[in-house]
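Thread: Newbie trying to understand structure tokens

Hi all, I'm a second-year student working on a class project, and my supervisor (Dr. K.) asked me to get a predicted structure for one chain before our next meeting. I've only ever worked with sequences, so writing a 3D structure as a token string is new to me. If someone could post the tokens and maybe explain what I'm looking at, I'd be very grateful. Here's the chain:
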Amino acid sequence: MTTQSHDCIRVRGARQNNLRALDLDIPLRQLVVVTGVSGSGKSSLVFDTVYAEGQRRYVETFSPYARQFLDRMDKPQVDRIEGIPPAIAIDQTNPVRTSRSTVGTMTELNDHLKLLFARAARLHCRGCGQPVRRDTAASIADELRVHAASAGDPRLVVTFPVAVPKNFSEAEVLQLLEQQGYTRIHARSADALEVVQDRFRAGGADRSRVLEALEAALRVGRGRVSVHVEEPAAVLKFSADLHCAACDIHYREPTPSLFSFNSPLGACDTCRGFGRVIGVDYGLVVPDASKTLRGGAIRPWQTESYRECQDDLVKFARKRGVPLDVPWRDLSEEQRRWVIDGEGPWEKKVWYGARRFFQWLEGRSYKMHIRVLLSKYRSYTPCADCGGARLKPEALLWRLGASGATGRGLNIHDLMLLPIERTSEFFAALALPAPLDEATDLLLGEIRSRLDFLVRVGLGYLTLDRQSRTLSGGEVQRINLTTALGTSLTNTLFVLDEPSIGLHPRDMRRVIEVMERLRDNGNSLLVVEHDPQIMLSADRIVDLGPGPGEHGGRIVFNGTPAQLAGRSDTLTAQYLSGRKDAVDAAGHRGPPRPGDPSLVVQGASEHNLQDLDVTIPLGRLVCVTGVSGSGKSTLVQDVLYAALRRAKGKPTETPGAHRTLLGAEHVAEVVLVDQTAIGRTTRSNPASYVGAFDVIRKRFAAEAVSLERGYTLGTFSFNSGNGRCPTCAGNGFEHVEMQFLSDVYLRCPDCDGRRYRPEILEVKMARGDRPAKSIADVLDMTVSEAAAFFADDRDVLDRIEPLVAVGLEYLRLGQPVPTLSGGEAQRLKLAGHLAESSAPRSLFLFDEPTTGLHFDDVAKLLGAFKRLLDAGHSLVVIEHNLDVIRAADWILDLGPEGGERGGRLVAAGTPQDVMACEASHTGRALREYAVERDRVVADGRASLASPTTVPEAPRVADAARNAIVVHRAREHNLRDVDVSIPRDGMTVVTGVSGSGKSTLAFDIVFAEGQRRYLESLNAYARQFVQPAGRPDVDAIFGIPPTVAIEQRTSRGGRKSTVGTLTEVHHFLRLLYVKLGLQHCPECEVPIEPQTVDAIAARLLREARGRRIELLAPLIVARKGYYTDLAKWAAAKGYAQLRVDGESLPTAKWPRLDRFREHTIELPVGAATVGAKNERELRRLLQQALDYGKGVVHVLDRGKVRVFSTRRACPSCGRSFAELDPRLFSYNSKHGWCESCFGTGVAIKGFDAEQTGEEIWWNDWFEGEATPCGDCAGQRLNPVALNVLYRDQSIAELAALPVDGARKFFDGLKLAGRELEIARDLLAEIRSRLAFLQDVGLGYISLDRAAPTLSGGEAQRIRLAAQLGSNLQGVCYVLDEPTIGLHPRDNAVLLDTLAKLGAKGNTLLVVEHDEDTIRRADHVIDLGPGAGTRGGRVVGEGRIDDLIAAPESLTGRFLAHPLLHPLAQRRAVGRGDPVIAIERAELHNLRKVNARIPLRRLTVITGVSGSGKSTLARDVLYANLRAHTGDAKRRRRAPAWLGCKDLRGVEHVGRVLEVDQTPIGKTPRSCPATYVGFWDDVRKLYAGTTESRVRGYGPGRFSFNTAGGRCDACEGQGVQTIEMSFLPNVKVLCDACGGRRFNAETLAVQHRGRSIGDVLAMSVDEAVEFFAAHPRIHHALRLLQDVGLGYLTLGQQSPTLSGGEAQRIKLVTELARLRPQADPRGRAAATTGTLYVLDEPTVGLHMADVEKLIRVLHRLVDAGNTVVVIEHNLDVIAEADWLIDLGPEGGSGGGRIVAQGSPETVAGAKGKSHTAKVLRTFLRERRPADLVVAVADASRRRERRAN
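---
Reply by user tm_fold:
Sure, no problem. This is what the structure looks like when written as tokens:
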């Protein structure tokens, strides 16, 4: 098969499990079925190889925190896999344990419903039940006119309410009203006035007058108006808000979160969205309703401890006349309530009741016995506040539709309780009132389609409220399948594991349609399946075989279904074409005859069974079938099995509801054969399972050599005894755990994989003329070989023969059970039952035994059934497989549908009887089965006759898979944006700052792509990795999984290095654990094993005369509860275990902290060390070493010493623990240096509790950090540093640069065991190092601390990681990747992005960089302004399209770029004052001598890593900061840091770094307060008339002090809401609506706007609003000038980006300045401030860069010096002085390659990368007439200066 490079997944050399170096091309965007006999390697290929690689690569793009929950698959054993898209497995596992997950959340229907309810539901008042609507002046006027016409046009009085504040008198309020012209009061109350707006008759009044009066009343009355009718007297109330005027109840605006029980806004406050609470269950308090109060009805009071309560009950009952001798059930409701609730508290000497008794107990629950008592009477009960609805009561007031007697429609909880089928009918009939906007229409369509999918796959009987943890595996898989379809993902590989399981043939076609829809959406489906319907619907079938196990693992067919049926002679083809039939192996017994024994179940009514009567004939194969949810498992397992167990006196669950079970006496025993695992260890094998191995061991023990040597039965066991190999403990191999790589299994070097000691293998058994065999030889035999070898041994043969009968003759007797496939394990379990001497007349119950079985395996299964029947047993099988149904003697067909429409018997009889039943879906499927098979044969013959292939019909996905379409996006400031992003290319999103670029790229495209992928994962993972919420967008089509590469994320904490960020260090840790040679830190000699005698001798020598305790370490530094371990210890007779140094009882084991590492030791015994007790000491020592697996802890004088028989220093005897990856981790206490805690530097205040990620140790850190003296900056403790590999410690290897490390690993020559272990490790390390080299980071060392990385270096490290993931088909979303990059590095970056795109990926880049925009395939320009003035697409397409777009600011700058210089260049003369840096040698600087001219704009540039930040910040700024300021400080100034001398410091009065650290740490900090004009705003509001009347001063308008601010949120505008098991959420304050102030303060207005409105203004809006106030206006214009016009004045500072914070600091400085009179004259003797800025153009559009340049010039013109680290060529071209560092990064940089004016640098010869790009840039960006003149003038100035 030939395919294009991006049209197939190429698998080469797959060797996972039994695959035989398999090569396969799997076409993309097709439905491919992989089939074959059980054990042929299907799951190994599909799940362990293809899915594992696709899932692993995408999950690696997540953060390390997220990956620990996403269950990253191991790397498969395969040479290579290319072209693989992100993979999602839709299997049957259901790991969900949280009750927050329901069918609604799994299918995303809850998400859609909450959006629909927020938009389309109608509110009904909780008081009067009437609909609540918003009134307008026009609607009120219309209603008044109608009322007037019907009531005779009475006189109307329009009034509005005015509240009287507590701190105001009524007279003061009346005075304020009079000032506004209101003098008439209609009514008064204690806290409000009803003010008259107007009087008129509606019929006669002019409409304009009525509207004007109503609008004024609504405005002053804050949305509330009352209209008083004079005759007859009546009051009409209206509200412009969600406010029921009749009941005076105000409701908040509905948001989607209000209807979500997983959101703090919607979840019930009492139960936190769980729907139930844990509390006292009074059903447990009164468990027996037949008992009387005197006879002990109240159970907890029948003990001696609380007998007093029983006495009180009797005493008070007599007084109140409550009967004491009447059964509880016969007491009246009032009497029972009296017993439970009581009359009052105990202190009042009245009856307190059971409820207060338990409240009293709760107050003493700190006592253990009280907690135990309470636990007996607690259970989960429906939440009383929400009634189990999970939501706040307010959410339930919103209703959709108009169904039911009340006509009020259904609330969201009502919909959750309906079966999905009825919910689907509800929405199909739902007609929403006009106007129905397009978004609501799309939502309804999505809901209808998802509900329809669920019904179509046979899940219509479920409810949306059903908890997902209660679902079966088949239900989970089908829900996941429909969810995957609903996510609308594309370019994704969906891997399915037998989707036919649990499905009736009627539902199969529906599932096939869902899979075809997934495929037609542009996805690829890889399905493991045996069902003929699905196989025949596939585009391609891959048949593995030819046999199972070691006989499989090869491709025997790869082609279309028709080709398989017509051409191939594989087993699959023979059954698919009808040449073989599984039914032939069954042997029909026919229908039961009259008088034959049978079981009769009558009146079964459990779950959905509807008073069902069934007869089950015995001695027959009875098949119970029916559509999904029809009640099959309920009948067989819950009713029949449990009832028979109880009838036989066996322990069981309570049988399901039924009247009677007849015929139980005909059954001797009932056996349920389910699908649980049969063995988890490698020692479990087929021979042991069927009991053959015991007999074989007996035979070997009876051999002459065994008798002579005294060998017993146990000698030949590899589970215990002394016959097994001591090295591998009988496993035969060494299991090397490789964590995130495939584990390695190595043959045991001592026994060569044969499990036993050599002398045991000398015992051989001969049979006939066959060669004699050892016990290992027998275990290595296949079942068929063993049957021939033991042909004359009846005992062995009887146990082996069932394995042959069920088709497992190819298995080896000693094959580990965990390596068997699901079908093989199922048949092995059946063979175990065949081998047992089960009582005759047993009834075997099977639940879908054909799960995972091929046609041929089904035939073998039916043959095994026949053997059971021949032995006199009976079989009842729940099954949908048509071959089993056809083979049945009797069929019970339940239905006709699922859920409440099922539970009835549709047909009972032979297959022919069922086929004749028209109402039976099973009968119809049986009839169609034969017809379909005949058609397949005909199609196969036709394909043979005409081998030419017919081209596939084009599908919808083929035409629509070329773009990501975003339809009507409204997130943040986007205004119904429609964009189409071409796939498999690079699209740049640009626009002015604040125009909505990141919103479109990240909040919509990235968030939705990742969310849809995560929603397709299991709900268990999703509860930890919370995906972003659904963005506000109507629809997104064609979106693939997305990956974000953001620059603004943290570069890493103090403990992060280049090695940890790239994960190279993780692989190095594993390498050192597996192959490192440990040395003693003191003696520096390799450690060796030591003997027990050596340990005993050392104890006798060093602890003589002291009493010591010997402890066996069972758990060392691991997390968990360890309840099972306590049970084990208790069973061994140990009363205590030592946990973290404290003894705990094993009998009452406490609940340990599962998130803390525990060390658990077994106290073996104590002894006094001395010659007299030596024997006892040695006994205890040996016992402790046995339990501790070679390690013992000795407690001596309160300290624990560790001794090991495996690892000890031969010189000093010191013992060491087993090597663990944590030993080499900087984040683990097991590995870090105890002085610096893994940071490598000494930081005051840093301790073990710090992670190093905290912001105060990184961005906010202002202290000094020097290399750690103990570890010399190597971060690890001495034990870790003395583990060597190839004579190097891990720290020495990490200190190498990437180039050096690559050379080291490329030069490694490995062989044997070392090669097997390190193969995958080295491949991972080498590939990561190669990708770091590809992005130009070969100079960086692996131990380079993450905080010291430049922005460009950090960005490229993340890019290298993505390049290494080798994914295909994903959408990479990048956030300004050129930040911090020199133009030379920018070219490298763009080449790297091109490599990513060439792999078939889509790139969506938020960027302002001109080079990136010009390299893009597609550009989207947002604007035209920022904030509310942006959010529209102003240009889209290629560069020419943007230039032609009239509104595109980007197009304008591309067509007419900035010409330089914008201002006249400031000359740098010889006598001008400068800061001279001499011999700077910090970090990678190489004796740099630099000049910084004062009162000039100086730009420091150079390639990434060349030393710019080191020179500007660490040398220049740090020294100036230490040597400037007051005289006292200067006298104490320290020595120069990082340089020999710094001259010219005396000219600098102040130094300030305008960096990107946050301007504040709390939500109260905002731009208005930081810049400083907020004080003026407060004074302005304090000066209004209303403030003066009320006596408000400026302090009233501060949100930092009490008085005027909102008390609920303390002026923050947000409140934090805690949620159980979910992250805390910050929401707008309910009291102030996020406006920060209380109502009285907000009532004060200036120009119609309150102080809260001002905080919500953007800078652009505020400039106009405060135009008349120069001080405020000046600061606001400065914010505009630096491109921050889109920010709101009150935007919380923690939400600002680093670039925004930096520009706000610039504005703060500018606001203080006044330009000097002669800015271009000679410099004064002393200058102002020296400012250091680090890349201020971050996040700036070209237009904003121009504004920034002018701002920088203003700073210099005011007499200051500005030093800028920058790569932006527009800024570089504006510099007065330019310093270019390089020529390369790291050790290749640190030198000045050019300095001078931009023209001088541009003309420099040599290695300057800046000179090359600047030369071209200046040539293109200078006015033609200035080029020559400027160059000449520059040269003249240079000559004069020198």
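A couple of things are worth pointing out once you decode it. The chain has a mean pLDDT of 83. The longest helix spans residues 921-945. Feel free to ask follow-ups in this thread.
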